[in-house]
Amino acid sequence: MTRRAGSKPADVARDNRQAVWDALRETGSQWRTILGLSDQLRIARKTVDDYLIGLAAAGYVERRNLDDRYQTVEVRLIRDLGYHAPRVRKDGTPVTQGAGVTNMWRSMRLLGTFNIIDISAHSTTPSVSVALETAQSYCSILLATGYLRVVTKADPVKGRRAVYRLIRDDGPKAPMIQRVKQVYDPNTGAVYRKAGQE
Questions:
Q1: What are the CB-based long-range contacts (under 8 Å, 24+) for 126-134?
Q2: Residue partners of 58: CB distance under 8 A and separation at least 6
Q3: Strand bridging mode 32-33 / 2-4
Q4: Architecture of domain 12-77
Q5: Which of 45, 61, 82, 172 is most buried, judging by how many CB atoms fall within 10 Å of its CB?
Q6: For the chain, what is the largest distance between any 2 Cα atoms, rounded to a whole number of angstroms?
Q7: Burial (CB count <10 Å: 0-12, 13-18, 19+), residue 10
Q8: Given this chain, do its domains 12-77 and 96-193 carry the same CATH topology?
């Protein structure tokens, strides 16, 4: 396993969503102006507004217009689901792309020790399906890049699957597999490659 810098994917949208969500949670049910949030977070007003429109449509925040002439809009949090920022489109529908990886990482952190059946079962929700093959692929690349260790080897004759343990947990954001079969960790900005890759 090799760690190196660079090859960082475009993860800006996710970070912006999380920053807005964190700011809303900090102030609870207090009203905040969109301009105030934008200035505080140093994120473009349109970016903040677009995300808040989606959160309002999904029932997470309430919006009100204070002054139509100056387009002053306030929002407040009315439904707090915890740390992770909801991933929603402007119409309020959930964004499911990448949700399987997010769910698998959460399951790994929660379980600590697991096999792919555990990961598939704990990561599948009414809106996201995680197949055994997907769980196996994600576990394999995380094993090869130093996130997991095999606790119990697989035994095909006995029908036993490998059991893994999470040994590198740098934070709540899921490590992402890139097209070149390397892993980008959005928690640290590090990129990990399989042992032997340059």
A1: 127/94, 127/96, 127/99, 128/96, 128/99, 128/100, 128/103, 129/100, 130/100, 130/103, 130/104, 134/100, 134/104
A2: 86, 88, 92, 93, 94
A3: unpaired
A4: Orthogonal Bundle (1.10)
A5: 61
A6: 73
A7: exposed
A8: yes
Distance in Å from the first CA to the final CA of the chain? 10
Alpha-helical runs (H) found in the chain: 12-27, 34-41, 45-57, 99-111, 116-123, 132-144
Pick the CATH number of 96-193 from 3.20.20.70, 1.10.10.10, 3.40.50.720, 3.90.1150.10: 1.10.10.10
At 76, the pLDDT band (50, 70, 90 cuts) reads very high
Domain boundaries, the chain: 12-77, 96-193
Three-state SS at 94: strand
What predicted TM-score, i.e. pTM, was given to this entire model? 0.61
* CA dihedral of residues 68, 70, 76, 82 (deg, nearest 10): 120
* pLDDT tens string 134-181: 999 999 999 999 999 999 999 989 989 999 999 999 998 899 988 777
